[in-house]
Amino acid sequence: MAKKILIVEDYPVTAKMIAEILEMEGFEAVIAPDGNSGLQKAAAEKPDLILLDIRLPGIDGLEVCSQLRANPKTKDIPVIMVSVKTADEDVKAGLKRGANDYVAKPFDPFKLLEVVKKHLK
Amino acid sequence: MNSRTELEKKLEKTNAKLSAKNQQLEAKVAARTADLEKVRKANLLLMKDLKEDIAKMQVVDRMKTEFLSMVSHELRTPLTPIKGYLALILSGKMGKLGPQQHQALELITRQAEHLHSLIDNVLDVARLDIGKPIPVFKQLLSIETLIEETAATMRIQAGEKKLTLSVAIEGQIPTLMADEIKLKRVLANLIGNALKFTPEGGEITVRASLVEGPAVQIEVADNGIGLAKENLGKVFDKFYQVDSSATRSVGGIGMGLPISRELVRLHGGRLWAESDGPGRGSRFIFTLPVV
């Protein structure tokens, strides 16, 4: 069965692009445009991995990450932060909240794929 | 007896005079004090105004920096799908490309890279302005590979202008703990400037050597328009543009060098310019200490 990946991203074109790369590689992609729907879909769809933007409308990616980790249903899903925030403190903040990895935007789609595959193993 | 009353009278008179004088003096002092008080109050008002002006200026300054930082974040957002889709199409995974299409897409990719580095420079200037540190991720790095890779990406541009871009690695260069992306930007900035300011047919050489310190020294030398002595330091000022018709045609926003200098400084090194004068080429040299 195809591995399912949840993309929490508010910029629609970026979300679509990530979904397309993943689908090309045989993954199933689910998109959530904000933090709240991200949390809902993470619990309902049980994805194998979550790609999480930091700058999101409503609750931001860091808070989403904390809540994912606090929920027994989602606490073990690998989370990769994907954001333009490349400052050291943002990376640290993301990893502190329990994210497994970090990819800075703009990224090479094939590098993103590599990171995704690494964490699905 | 008589003389005593007279004496007393005299004394009284003198006393009366004295107290009159005293009163006059007191009035004068009071008037002067009032004047001084007026001046003090005026000064206080002035000081308050000045303080308010300074506070306002600080607010404007902060707003300017925050605006710059916000804008560059916003500018990077659409760049993600632009660069992403370009890489996908170029990989051939979205269908086969003809050679012309491939070439055109590679051109667009280079322009997107250029736009990306301009945006990064704006973001770094904004960070410098608010005194926020520029993040540096150091890892073991081969300087030789760094130079070769950066030069390779810039050779196409050099070729378009019929410029020779060569690399000279002198002796054994040790690996360093350094931030690859930041140093690539420094090199790309320096080589980019050399490309801009060297007329057709010119030569650019990137040279690396080990110098005393020990430190790795990297030099980008060209035989282009050169620099007057008084401009050797000025080129590192923020937003500085060499005032000549040449610059207007080559563009740029005058942030490459100040940012490069800061990035080199963050690695514990130094960046400076040398030139034998206008028309006689320039050398931009930086060192990276070997720890």
Derived from helix and strand composition plus strand pairing, the structural class of chain A reads alpha/beta
Percentage of residues in DSSP E strands of chain B: 5-15%
What does the largest sheet of chain B look like? 5 strands, mixed
Average pLDDT across residues of chain B?
A: 87
Q: Using CB atoms under 8 Å apart, which protein chain pair has the greatest interface?
A: A-B, 22 and 20 residues
Strand order of the largest sheet of chain B: 2-4-5-7-6
Radius of gyration of chain B equals 34 Å
Strand order of the largest sheet of chain A: 2-1-3-4-5
Which oligomeric state applies? heterodimer
State the separation between the terminal residues of chain A, measured CA to CA: 15 Å
What's the total number of strands of chain A? 5
Total number of helical segments of chain A? Answer: 5
Features of the shown structure:
heterodimer; A: 121 residues; alpha/beta; five-stranded parallel sheet; 5 helices; 19% strand; globular; B: 291 residues; alpha+beta; five-stranded mixed sheet; two-stranded antiparallel ribbon; 59% helix
Description:
- The complex is a heterodimer of chains A (121) and B (291).
- In chain A, strands 2-1-3-4-5 form a 5-stranded parallel sheet, with helices on both faces.
- Chain A starts with a strand and ends with a helix.
- Chain A is α/β, with parallel strands linked by helices and 121 residues long.
- Chain A has 5 helices and 5 strands; from the N terminus they run E-H-E-H-E-H-E-H-E-H.
- In chain A, 45% of the residues lie in helices and 19% in strands.
- Chain B has 291 residues and is of the alpha+beta class.
- Chain B contains 6 helices and 7 strands, in the order H-H-E-H-E-E-H-E-E-H-H-E-E.
- In chain B, the strands form 2 sheets. Chain B has a 5-stranded mixed sheet. A two-stranded antiparallel sheet of chain B has the order 1-3.
- In chain B, helix 4 packs antiparallel against helix 6.
- The longest helix of chain B has 89 residues, at 2-90.
- The mean pLDDT of chain B is 87.
- Classes of the chains: A alpha/beta (121), B alpha+beta (291).
- The interface between A and B is medium-sized, with 22 and 20 residues.
